[in-house]
Write a sequence for this structure.
């Protein structure tokens, strides 16, 4: 059983081998077959026209030569008549010589015609072989398309680019990184990332690649501009210098088929066919290498400026922290002075309270020393009588 996913609704359903073969048989690469038919017809017309033109030119050449010879024979014959019998023998010899030349030319014409027919036959056989080769490629292409799913079609382009890069990696890009982009940043990622640094660790070149392909039988055809906005955003999220769309979309576009296309609406973006994949990397790398010394000087200046900024920042941080510590210490000092002042005020209050308490105690002591029974019972006859009964003297 085979699984087939509907390109519109995304539903997956299963069919047996017979049903799958029937569906596959309906998928035709009409554009490719039309191009093949046009190319075959053009080759056939070109071969026929070439053979006819060669034979026509050859026949016309020999006809002109024969006409010239016939004119010369007529001229000689006319000359022989006017010259008389003395020149008849010479005329006959000349005529015989010219007739011999004519026979030789006719034989040459026959040989050249035969050679032209042989060449024409060879061209026809070469044309048949070319047609057979193209038909074989068509069948292989159809078989390849039938065996591929939509995912495999996209992965085949990615694999092609990865294989092409790996074939020259050690010779052309020994220090470069080119791998699948598996890091998701803010919910999105690209297909491949290329990064290269110099031997001293200075960033040289960075490119985010997006590969796009689709099946010939896809009803809804995508355009390259459907993907460039997302690619530009992904380039910025990935912190890459360039963005490149490697595409098989819009196969009839003369613009994209002509070579490397610069997408003017977005900064540092290119749209290319797979055959320009390695040349574009080499072109951007050479451009980066030409400015590497300037970049080194800028990096050195940036680092020196960074050192100065770091020194200034360290000094500023020291001043700021010292100032904060001084303010905190000053606050604590002022608070301590305030607390001491409050304590002094409190102690003075305590001293005043103690002084007043001492005065009160002194007055109480004076009063206690001046206290007598007489004074206590002065206005209390009852207590005076009790003391007198007890035999205690009041005075």
């Amino acid at each position: 059983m085979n699984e087939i996913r509907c390109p519109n609704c995304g539903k997956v359903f299963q069919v047996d081998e017979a049903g799958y073969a029937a569906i596959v048989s309906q998928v035709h690469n009409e554009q490719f077959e039309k191009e093949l038919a046009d190319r075959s017809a053009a080759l056939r017309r070109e071969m026929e026209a070439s053979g006819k033109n060669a034979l026509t030119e050859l026949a016309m050449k020999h006809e002109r030569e024969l006409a010239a010879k016939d004119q010369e024979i007529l001229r000689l014959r006319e000359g022989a008549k006017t010259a008389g019998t003395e020149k008849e023998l010479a005329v006959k010899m000349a005529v015989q010589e010219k007739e011999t030349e004519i026979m030789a030319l006719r034989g040459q014409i026959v040989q050249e015609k035969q050679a032209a027919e042989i060449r024409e036959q060879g061209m026809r056989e070469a044309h048949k072989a070319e047609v057979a080769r193209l038909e074989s490629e068509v069948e292989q292409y159809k078989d390849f398309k039938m065996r591929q799913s939509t995912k495999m079609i996209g992965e085949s382009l990615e694999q092609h680019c990865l294989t092409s890069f790996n074939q020259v990696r050690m010779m052309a890009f020994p220090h470069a990184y080119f791998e699948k982009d598996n890091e998701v940043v803010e919910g999105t990622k690209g297909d491949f990332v290329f990064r290269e640094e110099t031997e001293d660790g200075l960033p040289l070149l960075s490119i985010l690649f997006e590969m796009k392909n689709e099946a010939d039988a896809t009803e809804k055809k995508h355009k390259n501009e459907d993907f460039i906005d997302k690619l530009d955003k992904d380039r910025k999220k990935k912190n890459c210098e360039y963005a490149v769309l490697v595409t098989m979309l819009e196969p009839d576009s003369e613009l994209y088929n002509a070579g490397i296309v610069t997408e003017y609406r977005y900064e540092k973006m290119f749209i290319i066919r797979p055959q320009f994949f390695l040349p574009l990397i080499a072109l951007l790398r050479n451009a980066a290498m030409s400015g590497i010394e300037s970049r080194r000087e800028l990096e050195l200046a940036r680092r020196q400026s960074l050192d100065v900024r770091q020194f200034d920042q360290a000094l500023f941080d020291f001043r700021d922290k010292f100032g904060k510590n001084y303010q905190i210490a000053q606050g604590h000092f002022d608070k301590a002075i305030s607390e001491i002042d409050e304590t002094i005020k409190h102690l003075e209050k305590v001293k005043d309270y103690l002084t007043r308490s001492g005065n009160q105690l002194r007055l109480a002591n004076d009063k206690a020393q001046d206290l007598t029974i007489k004074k206590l019972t002065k206005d209390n006859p009852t207590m005076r009588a009790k003391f007198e009964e007890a035999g205690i003297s009041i005075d």
